[in-house]
Amino acid sequence: MQDLHHQKKWLGILVLRCIGCSQEETGHILKCRKETVVDAEEWIRTCPPHDAIIFCDDLAIESQVRREFPKFDVILPEQLVKAGQVTGDDILRHYRRDYSEIKA
Questions:
Q1: What mean pLDDT do residues 42-70 have?
Q2: Looking at residues 12-25, what average pLDDT do you find?
Q3: Whole-prediction pTM value?
Q4: Are the C-beta atoms of 45 and 95 separated by less than 8 Å?
Q5: Dihedral sign computed on CA atoms, order 82, 83, 89, 95
């Protein structure tokens, strides 16, 4: 995980994937390569649990969705609504097999 732009992109990827967007659709919406989507998903699955919890902050997700997602010209209104409901726990549950352990 490098700079803030990189973090925002990856957080957006995880939100879109949690609401059911395919890797290809996610890349299209965020204007990034499929490899970037794969990298973000691999990182959240394998990073240290503490890093995953910090990264999946509810306020960061809410801010990202509210400020950035409406700017994406290809996102559907229903996707925008669903994205606004995603929490950090949703992302952790989706990607982390150790979710119950790291939340305990």
A1: 95
A2: 97
A3: 0.92
A4: yes
A5: positive
Question: 73, 63 in Cβ contact below 8 A?
Answer: no
Phi, psi dihedrals of residue 96, rounded to the nearest 5°: -105, 120
Distance between CA atoms of residues 33 and 52, nearest Å: 22
Q: Give the mean model confidence (pLDDT) for residues 32-58.
A: 95
Which residues are within 8 A (CB) of 54 and not within 5 positions of it... i.e. 6 or more apart? Answer: none
Per the structure, the complete domain to which residue 22 belongs is given by: 4-103
Q: Mean of the pLDDT values across residues 51-62?
A: 95
The identity of residue 70, as a single letter, is P
Q: How far apart are CA 32 and CA 34, in angstroms?
A: 7
Q: What total number of domains does the chain contain?
A: 1
Question: Which parts of 1-69 fold into alpha helices (H)?
Answer: 4-18, 23-30, 34-46, 49-55, 58-67
The tokens of 37 are what? 């989507």
Q: What's the chain's average pLDDT?
A: 92
